[in-house]
Every structure is written in structure tokens, then in C-alpha cells.
Amino acid sequence: MFHRVFTLGQLQCNASLLGDEETREAVVIDPGEQPRALIDAIRDGEWRVKEILFTHAHIDHVAGALEVQQLTGAPVAMHPADLGLYDSLAEQAAWIGMPTPPRVEIAHWLEEGEVLECGSVRLKVLFTPGHAPGHVSFYLADQAMIVSADVLFRASIGRTDLPGGNHSQLLESIRTQLLVLPDETRVIPGHGPATTIGLERRTNPFLAD
Ligand SMILES: [Zn+2]
Ligand SMILES: [Zn+2]
């Protein structure tokens, strides 16, 4: 499997391009903001992007969706519980002082437990609310990897002081959906460096009992 992370925009969101190197089918997880480097890699790699997946509808994760869609023609998917956040992109833009990004049509509403296929790559949708009400993580069991976005970071967890945030729900999502995965599972967070489930289980100060 091909996987590359692009750190994009003023909030340094990690966007993922994941694909099957044989079939050249790919998905984008979180197109980020200012996705020029991601777009160049899609074009240079001649990837056929089948879907653009949102982990959640915060502006730094979704602002570049239209640019990626204009290149690839790919439909966009997210969880329906984040529609309220997606409807508030203008407010989110105002908070951080950037222009309101263009809105794209959501073609696919993700469901908990759904398995997405991209060539031989399989991604399972885990429902991990708390940082955002419709936050999902994508688990690639065959690759021992999870794209956790803003649920779990290296030595930290997602903030819950933004609209729709819920701290106890976030901890519940981490404990029931993420910490049950094998220790060696590589974690790709929405910001900052990668980690593993085992390292966070042992050392993350926000998860200490
Ligand atoms: Zn977020
Ligand atoms: Zn974020």
C-alpha cells in the first residue's frame, strides 16, 4: 500500500493519500487547507482518487476539498453527525481569520462499521465522537494502521472546547475504539507526528488512570 502524509495550511493539518500501487486507485483522507502539495502528488502519481473522506468537518481538515475534487472528480464522504459543523464553515473561518472555503456536496454519508475498499486496501469506519460530534477514524487492520485525526495525538488528545466537543465522550471513544487495537498499530493523527497505540497506552498523560 502507498501512504503519504501532507502537512497542509496554517493549522498544519495532516492529509493522507492512500492507495493501491497496482491498481492506482486511491483515497484522500482530509484534503486539508492549501492542498497544493497533495494535488501535485495525485497528479504526478497518476492516482485515480475514488473518494475524498472527511474525518470531521473542522475547516483545517476540509477547506481544500473543492480543489482536490476539481482535479479528481471524486465524491466526498463524511459522517452525518458533523453536518452542523459543516454548515458552520463561515463561523469557523471567522474564528481563525481566513476566507470561508467553498462548500462541496456530500455524496456519501459514512456509517459506523462500514468498510471502504480502494483496490486491495480496506478501511473500516470507526465512530469516534468527542472532539467533533461526527468524528470518524479509519482503521486499516491489514496494514496495522489507524488514521485517528483529532481524536488521539502523540502524547495528547483532541480538544473538546469547540462547539460540539464533549470530553467524556472523547475519552470513551479512545478507550472503546482505539485502545482496544493491537499495540503495534501505527496512529496517524490530524496534527503532529505519528505514534502507536502501545506507546499512547503506556505514556499518554491524558489517558493515565
Ligand atoms: Zn478538529
Ligand atoms: Zn484538526
Structure description:
The protein is α/β, with parallel strands linked by helices. The chain has one domain: Metallo-beta-lactamase, Chain A. Helix content is 25%, strand content 29%. It has 7 helices and 14 strands. A hairpin with a 4-residue loop joins strand 1 (2-8) and strand 2 (13-19). The N and C termini lie far apart (36 Å).
Text of the CATH class: Alpha Beta
- Radius of gyration, in angstroms, nearest whole number: 16 Å
Tell me what the CATH architecture is: 4-Layer Sandwich
- What count of domains describes the coordinates? 1
Q: Which class do the helix and strand fractions yield?
A: alpha/beta
Write a short abstract of this structure:
This protein has helices spanning 36-44, 59-62, 65-72, 83-86, 89-96, 167-178, 197-203; strands at residues 2-8, 13-19, 25-29, 48-53, 76-78, 108-109, 115-118, 121-127, 136-140, 145-149, 152-153, 156-157, 186-189, 195-196. It is an alpha/beta fold and 209 residues long. The protein has a single domain (2-207), classed as 4-Layer Sandwich (Metallo-beta-lactamase, Chain A).
